[in-house]
Structure formats: structure tokens, C-alpha cells
Specification:
Elements (H helix, E strand, L loop, with lengths): L6 E5 L6 H15 L2 E9 L9 H23 L4 E9 L1 H11 L4 E6 L14 H8 L4 E5 L3
Helix pairs in contact: 3-4
Length: 144
């Protein structure tokens, strides 16, 4: 059982809500002696990358700082942590990386949606990943 989730992909945004997801990843990684890979996908717009390169690299710089802080926090608990940043469409990139790098689990957060007010056809990033991924997906609901 201890090697059930040897490698956990933890996509994180740059907001403070990631703490609940990070805490669950910490507990799972401790229990299963897992490696956690922190991933931040910088969403690209439908414009040539070169035209917005300066904008993207500013976000990348902020993301490096955020991932480094999270990695230090998890490493202080004795966990093995990697960091990765990529550019593209979030759900597509999360699924691609999970499959190409052979992760055992994708763990991501989602805000609570109220069933009565859902617009028809709504697909959040976490929902898209859960449907498209070939590996198990654990969705942690952010506290309200």
C-alpha cells in the first residue's frame, strides 16, 4: 500500500486557496512516501506567444517564487518535491504532463459550485482534467 501513489502531480494556481490542496498532498505523500511535483500552467491566450512573451515571463517569475515557497514548506516536512512551469491550456497541459511523466495521481483543488445555479455546459479545469485523465484524480474542495 505504501507505493500506491509514488508520484503525485499537484497543479497549483498563484492564489492562497492552494493551501487546502497542498495539505492533502502533504498527508498523502507522507503516507505513501511519494514525490510531489508542483505544477503551474500559465494559460496562454489565442495570440502569437511572441507578442505576449514579456507578459508571460512576468507571470512565470511570480510562479517561480510561489512554487519555491511551497516546495520549501513541503521539503521542510521531509518530502521530495519537484517544480514545473509550462505554458498552454491548463486542463490540456495537466493531462499531458500526467500521462507523459507517468504520474500515479493528479491532486487538484476546486471551488464549490452550487448545483441550482450551474450554467448548462459548465466545465471547470478540475472537471476537464477528471474526465480526460488516464490516471486517478483527487479533487479537493476549497473551504468557503
Amino acid at each position: 500500500m505504501s507505493d500506491l501513489f509514488r508520484s503525485i502531480l499537484l497543479p497549483v494556481d498563484l492564489g492562497a486557496r492552494a493551501e487546502a490542496t497542498v495539505d492533502v498532498a502533504r498527508r498523502l505523500a507522507t503516507m505513501h512516501k511519494s514525490t510531489i511535483t508542483l505544477l503551474h500552467v500559465i494559460e496562454t491566450l489565442d495570440a502569437p506567444f511572441e507578442e505576449l512573451q514579456e507578459f508571460y515571463h512576468g507571470i512565470e517569475s511570480i510562479a517561480h517564487g510561489r512554487l519555491a515557497a511551497l516546495a520549501a514548506e513541503l521539503s521542510a516536512d521531509g518530502l521530495t518535491v519537484k517544480q514545473q512551469i509550462c505554458f498552454g491550456k491548463r486542463a490540456r497541459e495537466i493531462v499531458r504532463i500526467a500521462e507523459e511523466e507517468d504520474f500515479d495521481l493528479i491532486l487538484l483543488g476546486s471551488h464549490r459550485l452550487v448545483a441550482e445555479t450551474l450554467p448548462s455546459g459548465l466545465m471547470t479545469v478540475s472537471h476537464q482534467v477528471a474526465i480526460a485523465a488516464s490516471v486517478p484524480v483527487l479533487i479537493v474542495k476549497f473551504p468557503t
